[in-house]
Amino acid sequence: MQTLLRLSRLVDRANESIGRLTGWLVLLMVAVGTWNVIGRYAGQAIGIKLSSNAFIETQWYLFSLVFLLGAAYTLKHNEHVRMDVLYSNWSPRRKALADFIGTLLFLVPFCAIALWFVRSPILSSWQIQETSPDPGGLPRYPIKTFVFVSFVLLILQGISEAIKKWAVWMGVRGEDTSSNEENAESVNSQGDGRNG
Predict the structure, then answer these.
(1) How far apart are alpha carbons 175 and 96 in whole angstroms?
(2) Cα(182)–Cα(8) distance, rounded to whole angstroms?
(3) CB 3.0-4.6 Å disulfide test: which of 11, 25, 76, 88 passes with 84?
(4) DSSP state of 160
(5) Which of 184, 127, 118 is nearest to 154 (CA)?
(6) Spatial distance between the Cα atoms of 191 and 189, rounded to a whole number of angstroms
(7) Cα separation, 24 vs 29, whole angstroms
(8) Which of 56, 20, 64 is nearest to 40 (CA)?
(9) Please, are residues 156 and 175 in contact by the beta-carbon 8 Å criterion?
(10) From CA 105, how far away is CA 109, in angstroms rounded?
């Protein structure tokens, strides 16, 4: 079980890093969106085209990346939408078992099926070097690849969550508080630095 928990921590760290990096894409997306609006109106006022389809599509692509790369990070932090009518009153062990079963019966199979179905269109997009049909648009095949990447990251995070939930159910680990553990590790490492 300890080996599985180490694997879980490795996946958690990877998705935490990807999620934090993805957060910065939000700022970039807002900057590009702001430029698109300012460029359109300022360009019309002075008679020069300051925006383009490439800038508009860049904003769309950034939004897509935030959504696609943020899904596993959101799962890691238990922030996905959930119906808590019954769940909220359950004990931590019962919640862990429900999450474990839900992950194995729904999340992982759904992601695996999605990977199967997106594989062929993504490969086709790469083979034809698909680009936007709009003049001056961007290539489509790189962004489509991130649909596949997203489901891979989601499966890995789902497996990580299943490992942690099983450990809670088996009593190997206390109530799952991933973000609290990270905060405690951060405080401990800061404390070690001050004492050293």
Answers:
(1) 8
(2) 13
(3) 88
(4) H
(5) 118
(6) 5
(7) 9
(8) 56
(9) no
(10) 6
The pair of structure tokens assigned to 137 is: 């648009």
**Which positions ≥6 away from 61 have C-beta within 8 Å?**
138, 143
Sign of CA dihedral 15, 111, 129, 65: negative
Tell me how far apart the alpha carbons of residues 158 and 72 are, in angstroms, rounded to a whole number: 8
Residue 64 buriedness (CB in 10 A; 0-12 / 13-18 / 19+): middle
Distance CA 130, CA 71 (A): 25
Three-state SS at 90: coil
pLDDT in tens for each of the 196 residues of the chain? Answer: 888 899 999 999 999 999 999 999 999 999 999 999 998 888 888 888 888 889 999 999 999 999 999 999 999 998 887 767 788 888 889 889 989 999 999 999 999 999 999 999 999 999 999 999 998 889 999 999 999 999 999 999 999 999 999 999 888 776 655 544 544 444 344 444 444 4
In 3D space, the residue among 74, 86, 80, 78 whose CA is nearest the CA of residue 165 turns out to be 78
- Asked if 155 and 111 count as a contact pair (C-beta separation under 8 A), the reply is yes
- Would you state the pLDDT for residue 192? 47
